[in-house]
Write a structure and sequence with these properties.
Distance between the termini: 33 Å
Radius of gyration: 18 Å
Mean pLDDT: 96
Strand order of the largest sheet: 1-2-6-5-4-3
Shape: globular
Number of helices: 13
Structural class: alpha+beta
Number of strands: 8
Low-confidence stretches: none
Strand content: 5-15%
Order of helices and strands: EEHEEEEHHHHHEEHHHHHHH
Amino acid sequence: MQYIEHDGFVEISSPEDFDPVKIFECGQCFRWNADENGVYRGVAHGCAARVWTENGSVFISGTMEDFQSIWYDYFDLGRDYASARAALSIDEYTRSAAEYGAGIRILRQDKWEALCSFIISQCNNIPRIKKIVETLCSCFGEPVELEGKTLYAFPNAEKVAALSEADLAPLHCGYRAPYILGAAKAVADGSLDLDALAQSDFNTALKALKTMNGIGDKVANCVILFGLCIPDAFPIDVWMKKALAAHYPKDFDPKVFGKNAGLAQQYIFYYARSGNV
């Protein structure tokens, strides 16, 4: 891949395993939305951008400094996804899922944002998760300007920890409100140290996250994979249960995928959710 700076945006020429539609629509994040032209707008790490494809290149608005300081790591551009996909071709279904999902990259999201977002995701669908998350940001996040439009950053844990359940009423997040506040307070006071967990291993992070009210295996695995960036997490939701039941033995262990387990999960999830169970 080549990175070329233009006036107001950076072009990623000959992008390898980089498809914005697959990345933003595979259930790993909730802050990016496409317009009628397929141009995505979103906010990550307090910075807003447009992302789109044109003539075989991917474009990200902003300066080269923005790209190097935020977007290069956010889109995990230092990872060789082609080699990872090849390593995952251990059976026909996984091979087909990996080929279908080629272009997915696992975003390196803000740890607190991932934790809060996946608490919201419990027993929820993606459109409603996005609506709740956007309401949280518009009510309590800092405004971020993008080409004349005002977007909002995700509010930090300290800001959310100071709120009450009544404050969260506009979100219509139901029983999740006390879980959100409890997690925010734990992150804000340091009793749940997400930075330290990101430097630990999967089992340590899983155990720590599951001490929090409202966090079970699925949410914890999502936080570990998408927030803590520990690559061997393997979230299992309804779609994954269907795919695993149909194509893998009852004693299937995702450890067979090694450090690429999280990527395998994304390929299988995206493939199954697209009608290929």
